[in-house]
Write a structure and sequence with these properties.
The structure is a homodimer. Chain A is α/β, with parallel strands linked by helices. The first copy, chain A, has helices spanning about 25-35, 50-65, 80-90, 100-110, 160-175, 195-210, 235-250, 265-275, 290-295, 310-315, 325-330, 335-350, 395-415, 420-425, and strands at about 5-15, 40-45, 65-70, 95, 125, 130, 140-145, 150-155, 180-190, 215-220, 220-230, 255-260, 280, 305-310, 350-360, 375-380, 385-390. In chain A, strand 6 (about 130) and strand 7 (about 140-145) form a beta hairpin. In chain A, helix 2 crosses helix 3. The longest helix of chain A is centred in the C-terminal third of the chain and has 21 residues, at about 395-415.
């Protein structure tokens, strides 16, 4: 990334952020906002709310970058002292703002009770600072600027923080730190393939765009290709399009979506467009495949339902597996998966039946059928049955998650049509 | 909390931690580890991997607290320079360790290929530092100590970081920063109740232990009561026991577990102990109830399976609901929920049948049956059928999660026996 762009740091204030169960996540939103203005985040920190600690952290941050975004510590209690500390670091006084005081009293009156004395301090503003309105809460925010250093103080409550950034702070920061253009990010998504296969395929693209940072993130059956471009909106869109086109040349239909697309929503869209319906029978995924399909709103348009056939009796009674097949090939086998897929399709009268049977672990594995072995099968109305035998890595949770990604990916490939399944199987 | 305890800061290194999709979470684990040694975390920061940035952050951190834990930047690539930077800040040299080099080469040889040249630098150790072994990866860690300042360097990969802390670093830190006793934390867990009801009940306990921090965290149907005590192991255990006893006096069996207990595992244990089996029929939760039950390993001991009856036809065909009931009362109704619970119990031959039908949203709601309306029912072999009508807050994901918590909570109460269900229903 370029070294000429304005830089910023982010400081999250609150002792609860130094505990064992919560950490700052506001900075992810703010980083995206700053990047879109062409400002690069060079550090992040979390501070407790003690006066000395907080003052030290504000000073340190302003030495490291000319722009500091602080979240939290703007409330009415004694522990809220971000405003006071920042005023002191800048050498500015606090002055009572009668208009804000009147608005605060009105806010409380509307809810039917008098304003507690403790809230009065929220009407003390940093002299010379720009006050940022907070329609979603009681604490106003601030932009403090001494010509060399700028601090933007935002609430810690995510919905208030986001609103104040979007409605006011972002434009002020943009005016104060003009940049040739923003950093824009695009993500392409691939599912159901091994990371190493994707890496091999995209190697030539890596080489062609070596000056631009491309990141590959992999998580239980989904692979994300992230890349960024810097410049004006038009320039960056063209550049991101070029990189995307290069990836599509080597990956083609293996790319299922972009940015906020989810695999389940993409599959749902394909079912809707094809006017087809789906039913699933699942063993080791235990309902999480159906759960993921129904995560997407409107899934009742195409998803008829499913059976969680944990016990063998349920595989027979609900998914129509022949007891002789279970006896001969076992519950985790290609034969059982195929019969489950066909059986559940018939049972629900669905266009497509999908089945999963496997060993998620941690126990139940053998040398022949180790933990992570999963058979999946897809049956459709034309009599096609596609089967894959998977050997998945990781613990119980990862095997289950990975299986649902492969399942959704197979459904997608099937609905895209053609002979792609055979290619898919041979991978 | 006391101000006399040793203090520490945590620094996470890696440019990816300054982006928009990932942030440091290793610090949550490390904070718990440090607190158990009686060491208080006073700040956390994330730094990019540029030399100057990283050197500045290490210096700043060591000025703010005498102990610094750094994660990340120990790998073999050019971007990995935590070891080099920390050595420079302390003024120590790097020296080649032939034993480590031999081990690295062996590690690669075992996998059947020669060690890349780039990995050689992992055999350069900080002179005078204690080397921390990394059985789960290739990068060793370090404890650097100049008598006044201590820096512990751990890998960024969570499993490696955790292993190195637990197996070696924690004991060394404990010896170097002896403390009168650790901060110990206990969490009690409640499910299936409104947060306001729990808060009202625990008010007297709050008042009695006002000197000790008690935190209530609520998340979609589960409520956590967290409290801490500081001192030697014996003292803190006794104190935590006293606070726990006070909570149990007011909440009794409403507390389902402690610390790492999960509701699904607790329910599984009760089914196993009772020798009973379970089957579920779910509509709006779409498989996520079965999915949550089977998250716990060994659930096949008692969970026979379930049906995801999204379409009305499936409610009839799989869960044995009378079409006339659907016609008369609708899919989301007490009658349908009761018939689903009895039907799925019979279909699977289970001791207990559980059913969910509701409107998770975002669409599908009416004035009479708004989004968030959920009917749940439990049927057992004695002919008991318990029903609850819920009106749950939040979006689709929250309604679904909340419903599974209520369902598991009802199963737990049922298995604990007695007339508790009636009390549960009247809440």
């Amino acid at each position: 990334m370029s070294g000429d762009r304005p830089t910023a740091s982010i400081l999250a204030v609150g002792s609860e952020l130094l505990g064992t169960s919560r950490t700052d996540t506001n900075s992810l939103f703010l980083t995206a906002g700053l990047e879109s203005l062409g400002i690069q985040v060079v550090r992040k920190a979390c501070s407790g709310d003690g006066w000395d600690d907080l003052a030290a952290e504000v000073r340190i941050a302003l030495e490291r970058a000319p722009l500091l975004i602080v979240t939290g510590g703007l409330g009415p209690t004694d522990d809220d002292r971000t405003k006071e500390v920042v005023a002191q670091v800048f050498g500015y006084r606090l002055v009572r703002d009668e208009e804000i005081l009147a608005r605060l009293k009105e806010r409380f009156a509307r809810r039917g009770f008098p304003m507690p004395k403790v809230n009065e301090k929220q009407a003390d503003v940093i002299e010379g600072a720009t006050v940022l309105k907070n329609p979603r809460g009681s604490a106003p925010g601030y932009l403090v600027d001494d010509g060399a250093r700028v601090a933007v103080l935002l609430p810690g409550v995510p919905v208030e923080m986001r609103g104040m950034w979007t409605d006011g702070a972002a434009a002020l920061v943009k005016g104060r730190f003009p940049s040739a253009g923003g950093i824009h990010r695009r993500t392409l998504k691939v599912a159901g393939m091994a990371e190493s296969v994707v890496e091999e395929k995209v190697q030539p693209v890596y080489a062609a765009f070596s000056g631009d940072p491309v990141t590959i993130l992999a998580a239980a059956g989904e692979i994300l290709l992230q890349f960024t471009a810097l410049g004006s909106d038009g320039e960056t869109a063209a550049k991101l399009d070029r990189i995307e086109a290069a990836f599509r040349t080597v990956l083609g239909d293996d790319i299922f979506g972009r940015d906020d697309d989810t695999l389940e929503a993409v599959v749902g869209g394909l079912f809707r467009r094809a006017g087809k319906t789906l039913a699933v029978a699942e063993s080791c995924t235990g309902g999480t495949l159906a759960g993921r399909i129904t995560d997407a709103p409107g899934s009742s348009d195409f998803f008829l339902g499913g059976a969680v056939t944990y016990a063998n009796e349920a595989k027979v009674a609900l998914a129509g597996v022949d007891p002789a097949t279970l006896e001969r090939a076992g519950a985790v086998s290609e034969e059982t998966a195929r019969e489950m897929a066909e059986g559940i399709r018939k049972r629900f009268g669905a266009s497509v039946g999908f089945a999963v049977t496997g060993i998620a672990g941690p126990s139940g594995g053998t040398l022949e059928k180790p933990v992570g072995l999963v058979h999946v099968a897809l049956a459709d109305e034309d009599g096609t049955v596609v089967h894959r035998r998977l050997q998945l890595p990781g613990d119980r949770a990862m095997v289950r998650r990975w299986t649902t990604s492969v399942a959704l990916s197979m459904l997608r490939v099937h609905l895209l049509g053609g002979g792609r399944e055979e290619r898919e199987r041979s991978r």
